[in-house]
C-alpha cells in the first residue's frame, strides 16, 4: 500500500513526539545555559541477584549516574525515542533499510554512550520530517464511504394509490417505485410511466443526458431530471449497477500500487555507506565516540526534512493552480510514468453535445432550416436543444416567434414557426411513421441524430457529437516528446463509433470502447504491470481504474467519488492544468534531488571529519542542522512559480 492508510495515525504520534522533543531540548538548554542549574548528580541504583536452589549464580549492583539537568532529555529519549526506535526496528525486520534507520542507530548509540543531547536532537529531526509532510496532506474520507453516502437510503414504493418510503434494502424485484425530480435512482429498472432525462455519464461514459420514456432502462446511481418517473425494479439494490461498481472499488483498493518514495531509494544507498564509515572510524581509532559522531552527522535530514519541504512547497504551488494533491508520493513518481490512459467523456471531450452537421433535404438550405429549428428548440428542455441554439447563435441568426408548442413522448417537439409546422423527432420514430420516405435519410453515422419535418415533409437531419476539447490534440501529441510517454491509450464506456471518432481527431492509436468498470480495472492493472501508468478520468465508472493506476488523476469537481479515489484532482477542467501537474512533479523531483544529494554530499564530508576525531556528536548534530537549513532553503524554491508551467 502507499502512504495513505498508514500516514495519518503515524503522523499523529510523531506530532506529539516532535512537540515533546522541542519542549525537552528547550528545557535542557534553559536549565543548563540560561539558569546554570541542575548539575547535581543523582545515582539510580539497582540491586540484582540470581540464584538457584543449589547455589548463587549472580549478585551485583547496577548504578546509573544522572544529572538533574538531563531529566528533560531522558524524558525525550524514553517517551519519543523508544517508539521511534521500535517503528524502525519493525521496518528493519521487514527488510527495509531506509535512510531513517541511521537515525535509529544514532539514538541507541547516544543512549549507550550517555550523549543524551545528541540523541534527543536526532529524535527531533526524525519526527520532524514526518510532521512536515503530514502537515501538507489533509485527511481524505474513504472512497467506499463516499460511494455509499451518494446512494439514497430510501426508495418510494407505490402500491395502488398509496406511496410508502422504504429502505433500499427492502426493494424487491417487480416493485413499483417513484423517482422524484433530481433524485438518484436507487435500483436498476424499467420506466413504466413518465418522461424525463437522466444523467448516466459518470456510470456509462455516454456524454449526453439520456431521454427516459415508458420502456426505457434506468441504472442505479443515475441522476433524474426535472420530471418524476415511475419504474419497475428489475434488480435488488445489492445486485444493481452501482453496487457492482462498489464491489469493483473494494477489489481495486486492496491492490493499490505501491510508489517507492524518493527518500527510500536514496536511503538504500546512503545508509550502508554511512554505517561503513562509522564502523571504520571506530575500528581504526578504537574510540566508540567517533562511531556516534559519524552516525549523528550522517542522520539523513536532507532526506527526512529536505524532501518533505520540497513536497509541501510543490503541493502549495499546485493548490494555487487549482490542482489538489491528495497523495504526495505522486509528485516524485509522475515523471517516471510511461503509459498515459485517458477516459473519453469529460476529459478529452467537454461531455456535451455539439451540432456537427445539418443535412438539408432538397428544397431547403442549411441556414433557413437552422433558423426554423433553433427557433423551436429554444423552448425545449431536450438534451440536444442547447447545442442547436448554440449553433444558431454562432451563425448570428435571428430567431423567429413560435406558437402552439407541444412535446409529447413518441412524437417529439412540434410548433408553428413563421407560419410553418415544424416537428423534430428521432430517426426511429420517423421511420415508423413515414416508412415510404425513409430512404431519403442520410446513412446512419456515429453520435446522435434528429430528423426534422416541415409541414409534414422531411426537411433535414441533424447530427451531433460529443464536443472535443480544443486543446486535446495538441496535448496528446506533446506527451511523447515532452514527457517521455511511450504509450497513450483511450479507454471509454462509450460506443465504438464515438470513441474511434475522438481517437482520430486527437491522434490516439490504442483504443478501447464499451468498457465496463471491471474491464477498465483489469486493463489498467495489466498495463501497470508493464510500465508505470497515469489514468485520467472523471466518472464514477473510472474510480476503480483511478485506484489501480500508478497515478490516478480526477478531472473536474463533478464527482466526489472520483476525487476520493484519485491521487490528484484537477479542479479546473482544463488539460493545461494536467500539463502543469506533470511539470510541477518533474520540477519537484529535480529540486528534491538537489536538496537531498547536495545535503548528503555535505554530510559525507562531515562524516570524514567526525571519523578523524575533529567533530564531537553534539558538534556533528549542530553541523547537521546547518546542512538541514541549506537543504530546506533550496527546497522552498519549489513553492515559487517559474515563468511557465506548460509547454504545449
TrEMBL record:
Q: Which UniProt keywords apply?
A: ATP-binding, Cell membrane, Membrane, Metal-binding, Nucleotide-binding, Translocase, Transmembrane, Transmembrane helix
Fetch the InterPro entries from UniProt. ATPase_P-typ_cyto_dom_N, ATPase_P-typ_P_site, ATPase_P-typ_TM_dom_sf, ATPase_P-typ_transduc_dom_A_sf, ATPase_P-type_domA, Cation_Transport_ATPase_IB, HAD-like_sf, HAD_sf
Q: Which organism is it from?
A: Methylobacter tundripaludum
Gene3D superfamilies in UniProt: Calcium-transporting ATPase, cytoplasmic domain N (3.40.1110.10), Calcium-transporting ATPase, cytoplasmic transduction domain A (2.70.150.10), HAD superfamily/HAD-like (3.40.50.1000)
Q: Does the keyword Membrane apply?
A: yes
One molecular function GO term is:
ATP hydrolysis activity
Q: What is its EC number?
A: 7.2.2.12
UniProt domain P-type ATPase A: residue ranges: 151-249
Q: What is this protein called?
A: P-type Zn(2+) transporter
Amino acid at each position: 500500500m502507499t502512504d495513505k492508510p498508514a500516514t495519518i495515525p503515524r503522523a499523529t504520534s510523531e506530532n506529539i513526539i516532535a512537540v515533546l522533543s522541542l519542549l525537552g531540548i528547550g528545557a535542557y538548554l534553559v536549565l543548563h545555559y540560561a539558569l546554570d542549574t541542575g548539575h547535581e548528580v543523582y545515582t539510580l541504583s539497582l540491586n540484582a541477584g540470581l540464584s538457584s536452589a543449589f547455589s548463587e549464580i549472580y549478585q551485583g549492583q547496577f548504578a546509573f549516574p544522572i544529572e538533574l539537568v538531563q531529566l528533560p532529555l531522558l524524558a525525550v529519549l524514553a517517551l519519543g525515542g523508544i517508539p521511534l526506535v521500535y517503528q524502525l526496528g519493525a521496518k528493519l525486520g521487514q527488510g527495509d533499510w531506509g535512510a531513517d534507520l541511521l537515525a535509529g542507530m544514532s539514538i541507541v548509540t547516544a543512549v549507550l554512550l550517555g550523549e543524551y543531547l545528541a540523541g534527543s536532537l536526532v529524535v527531533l529531526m526524525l519526527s520532524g520530517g514526518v510532521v512536515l509532510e503530514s502537515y501538507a496532506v489533509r485527511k481524505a474520507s474513504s472512497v467506499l464511504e463516499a460511494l455509499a453516502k451518494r446512494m439514497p437510503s430510501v426508495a418510494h414504493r407505490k402500491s395502488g394509490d398509496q406511496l410508502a418510503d422504504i429502505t433500499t434494502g427492502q426493494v424487491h424485484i417487480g416493485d413499483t417505485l417513484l423517482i422524484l425530480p433530481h433524485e438518484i435512482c436507487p435500483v436498476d429498472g424499467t420506466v413504466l410511466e413518465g418522461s424525463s432525462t437522466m444523467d448516466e455519464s459518470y456510470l456509462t461514459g455516454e456524454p449526453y443526458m439520456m431521454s427516459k420514456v415508458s420502456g426505457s432502462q434506468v441504472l442505479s446511481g443515475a441522476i433524474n431530471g426535472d420530471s418524476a418517473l415511475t419504474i419497475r425494479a428489475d434488480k435488488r439494490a445489492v445486485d444493481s449497477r452501482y453496487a457492482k461498481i462498489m464491489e469493483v472499488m473494494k477489489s481495486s483498493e486492496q491492490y493499490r500500487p505501491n510508489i517507492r518514495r524518493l527518500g527510500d531509494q536514496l536511503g538504500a544507498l546512503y545508509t550502508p555507506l554511512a554505517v561503513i564509515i562509522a564502523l571504520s572510524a571506530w575500528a581504526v581509532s578504537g574510540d566508540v565516540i567517533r562511531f556516534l559522531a559519524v552516525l549523528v552527522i550522517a542522520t539523513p535530514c536532507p532526506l527526512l526534512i529536505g524532501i518533505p519541504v520540497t513536497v509541501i512547497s510543490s503541493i502549495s504551488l499546485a493548490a494555487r493552480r487549482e490542482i489538489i494533491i491528495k497523495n504526495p508520493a505522486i509528485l516524485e513518481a509522475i515523471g517516471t510514468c510511461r503509459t498515459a490512459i485517458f477516459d473519453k467523456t469529460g476529459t478529452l471531450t467537454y461531455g456535451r453535445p455539439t451540432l456537427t452537421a445539418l443535412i438539408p433535404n432538397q428544397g431547403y438550405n442549411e441556414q433557413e432550416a437552422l433558423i426554423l429549428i433553433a427557433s423551436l428548440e429554444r423552448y425545449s428542455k431536450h438534451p440536444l436543444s442547447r447545442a442547436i441554439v448554440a449553433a444558431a447563435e454562432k451563425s448570428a441568426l435571428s430567431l423567429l416567434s413560435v406558437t402552439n408548442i407541444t412535446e409529447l413522448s413518441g412524437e417529439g417537439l412540434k410548433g408553428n414557426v413563421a407560419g410553418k409546422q415544424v416537428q423534430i423527432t428521432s430517426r426511429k420514430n420517423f421511420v415508423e411513421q413515414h416508412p415510404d420516405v425513409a430512404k431519403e435519410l442520410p446513412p446512419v453515422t456515429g453520435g446522435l441524430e434528429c430528423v426534422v419535418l416541415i409541414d409534414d415533409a422531411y426537411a433535414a437531419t441533424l447530427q451531433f457529437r460529443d464536443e472535443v476539447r480544443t486543446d486535446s490534440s495538441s496535448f496528446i501529441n506533446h506527451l511523447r516528446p515532452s514527457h517521455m510517454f511511450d504509450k497513450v491509450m483511450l479507454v471509454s464506456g462509450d460506443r465504438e463509433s464515438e470513441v474511434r471518432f475522438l481517437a482520430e481527431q486527437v491522434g490516439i492509436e490504442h483504443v478501447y470502447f464499451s468498457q465496463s468498470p471491471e474491464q477498465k480495472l483489469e486493463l489498467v492493472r495489466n498495463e501497470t504491470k508493464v510500465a508505470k501508468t497515469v489514468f485520467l478520468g472523471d466518472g464514477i465508472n473510472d474510480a476503480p481504474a483511478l485506484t489501480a493506476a500508478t497515478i490516478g488523476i480526477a478531472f473536474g469537481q463533478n464527482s466526489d467519488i472520483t476525487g476520493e479515489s484519485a491521487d490528484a484532482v484537477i479542479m479546473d477542467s482544463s488539460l493545461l492544468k494536467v500539463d502543469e501537474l506533470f511539470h510541477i512533479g518533474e520540477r519537484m523531483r529535480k529540486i528534491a534531488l538537489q536538496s537531498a544529494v547536495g545535503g548528503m554530499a555535505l554530510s559525507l564530508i562531515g562524516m570524514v571529519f567526525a571519523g578523524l576525531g575533529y567533530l564531537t556528536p553534539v558538534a556533528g548534530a549542530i553541523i547537521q542542522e546547518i546542512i538541514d537549513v541549506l537543504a530546506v532553503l533550496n527546497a522552498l524554491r519549489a513553492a515559487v512559480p517559474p515563468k511557465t508551467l506548460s509547454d504545449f
